[in-house]
Amino acid sequence: MSTTIWMNHWFSTAVNIIDLLRADSLDIHVIGTNENEYSVIKNSCDEWYQEPALKDDDYVDYCLEFCKAHKVQVFIPRRGMVKISEQKHRFEEVGVKVMIEDYSIMKLLNNKEEAYRYYNENRIGPVPDYYLVTTSAQFMDAYNKLLTKYSQVCFKFARDEGGKSFRLIDNQRKGYAALFKKQNTRITLEDVMRALDERDSFAPIMIMPFLPDEEISVDCLNTEQGLIALPRVKGYEKYETLRYDKEIIDLCKTFQEKAGLNWPYNIQFKYLNGIPYFLEVNTRMSGGVHMSCFASGVNIPQIAVKKILGETIEWENSYETKIIAQVLNPVTID
Fold first, then answer.
1. Per-residue pLDDT for 180 more than 90?
2. What angle, rounded to 10 degrees, do the helices at 14-22 and 289-296 form?
3. CA 104, CA 85: separation in Å to the nearest integer?
4. What is the pLDDT of residue 153?
5. Which residues are bridge partners to 206 per DSSP?
6. At residue 178, does pLDDT exceed 70?
7. Nearest-10 Cα torsion for 22, 26, 27, 32
8. 166 touches 182 (CB < 8 A)
């Protein structure tokens, strides 16, 4: 019997997650929704609906009614994850299995400052030096302190998704040399202070050193066989490398032992002077999970769906280093 799965407001690379769910002829019926009528995942879904522009409790109410109306059996949320986790019991009461962690750990991990404190207190692994600031005076003080130890400084809001607010302070972004730099995440200190001075206080910002060395994105899922941890080394080239460094795998295992997550998640590390620092844990599948799955042969989305349905899929991983790239193809959207 077909299993009805709903994915709400996922990013465009979720087309690959849907392909992984359908692998091996798994009998599923996929419903997709998005505020954007022309989201690219529309073509990959069996049913498609445009979402209303709702927030917080109103959005959770919409999700619950949607599940009832469309007989959703498995809900894989991306939008509104923390609020949905807070009210997960309402979905479970009507027979909907929600692929999301409990509210306490969701709330913690989706606040960068609380998460960093948690990593420190539980000795999970190193985090960068950081300051939490809410005024422009605090920001300048923290910036000056960091510059005594580090050559570059960056910042982002403590509550952020996908690094949208991330900025690297670059006081050389003007002039001829700046023409050779990508500018979308760079900002001068002068421009930062001008923006911050518009407010007496603002939502908490984390300011920290910029870590310029390798970035590792690890796609994870805990199973009866043990932890799946697929580390992708990301860079500025058009490829990534699946590479199983023992130090990274051990850090992932330590995190899992402490946090006890049940569903797919992604850990971001960044190196500085040979030390891998925790940047964040995303409590959902990453945009590049399909690359990890393709290179390793381990189908995280399908294993997770089987798990939430009470079934087990055995998995094998050769742990071979692989170079991964993806080719983009044009599509028309129905």
1. no
2. 40
3. 9
4. 96
5. 132, 156
6. no
7. -30
8. no
Q: How far apart are CA 150 and CA 211, in angstroms?
A: 9
Q: How confident is the model at residue 112 (pLDDT cuts 50, 70, 90)?
A: confident
Residue position matching structure tokens 């299993």: 3
Cα gap 332→334, rounded to integer Å: 6
pLDDT of res. 228: 98
Tokens at 123, concatenated: 């000795």
Query: Within 13 A of 300's CA, how many CA atoms are on the CB side?
Result: 32
In order of 119, 126, 159, 201, the CA distances from 215 in angstroms are 18, 15, 21, 32
Closest CA to 246 of 210, 216, 284, 289: 216
Q: Return the bridge partners of 226, or none.
A: 223
Segment 159-175 shows an average pLDDT of: 79
Confidence band (pLDDT; 50, 70, 90) for 165? Answer: confident
Position of tokens 């990534």? 240
* Best CA proximity match to 215, nearest among 299, 296, 280, 158: 280
Distinct helix (H) and strand (E) counts, the chain? 11, 16
Kind of pairing, strands 3-8 and 28-34? parallel
pLDDT of residue 183: 63
Q: How far apart are CA 42 and CA 72, in angstroms?
A: 17
Chain centroid to Cα 89, Å, comes to 24
Domains of the chain in sequence order: 3-100 (3.40.50.20), 131-209 (no CATH), 213-324 (3.30.470.20)
**Does 181 have pLDDT greater than 80?**
no
